[in-house]
């Protein structure tokens, strides 16, 4: 696997930018998009919304959402995700400052690895891990705790996200930024973030000033 193993400790730069994936780097929530293939999008959107708003724990919700999609061939899911719409300015920032940027997502390694390679982040992401057999998902090996990623860095951490499941990640980072360019920011995130942006261009410019400071 090309994602970063949880045991690794990173000590390579002065500032680290930790980006959520869904509705931060992407222009939509990934799992609801996939669920349309099997006409489960309404059920998936309900679970996703409850998670983003903090009405259900990520762990509980993610298990239910994965169960909805587990019978889909992994290659089909990863191909769709690889072509999902992206916030191009934020992807541009990732590519301009690759040594300083990481994606932190609860999504599964086998589903997102093609997208990570496509945007040049195949060695710069943390995610949940899947158990696979015959190109089918048979279970979840490990669900990532986003806040644990911060402890892997000695550097100054800047975290960017949109949902309540990003709250602990932002709280533990030195600077927490809420991004509402795709969907409404979770109220729980607005309560604790240092900055909030609702426009991708403005966030891109702000991140550029942070990396130069």
Tell me briefly what this model is.
The protein has helices at 30-35, 41-52, 58-69, 74-82, 88-96, 109-118, 146-150, 167-172, 187-192, 200-212; strands spanning 15-19, 101-108, 125-133, 136-142, 156-161, 175-179, 195-197. It has 213 residues and is α/β, with parallel strands linked by helices.
Q: Can you walk me through this structure?
A:
There is one protein chain. The protein has 213 residues and is α/β, with parallel strands linked by helices. Helices cover 41% and strands 20% of the residues. It is built from ten helices and seven strands. Strand 3 (125-133) and strand 4 form a beta hairpin. The radius of gyration is 16 Å and the shape is globular. Residues 1-12 have low confidence and may be disordered.
Give structural attributes.
213 residues; alpha/beta; Rossmann fold; 7-stranded mixed sheet; 10 helices; 7 strands; 41% helix; disordered N terminus
The helix count comes to 10
Whole-number count of domains: 1
CATH architecture: 3-Layer(aba) Sandwich
The SSE order reads: EHHHHHEHEEHEHEHEH
Tally of DSSP β-strands:
7
The radius of gyration computed from the alpha-carbon positions, rounded to a whole number of angstroms, is 16 Å
User: Which CATH class is shown?
Assistant: Alpha Beta
Give the helix/strand class: alpha/beta
Share of residues in helices: 40-55%
Assigned CATH superfamily:
HAD superfamily/HAD-like
- Look up the CATH topology: Rossmann fold
Distance between the termini: 34 Å
Low-confidence stretches: 1-12
Rounded mean pLDDT is 90
Order of neighbouring strands in the sheet with most strands: 4-3-2-1-5-6-7
Q: What percent of residues are in strands?
A: 15-25%
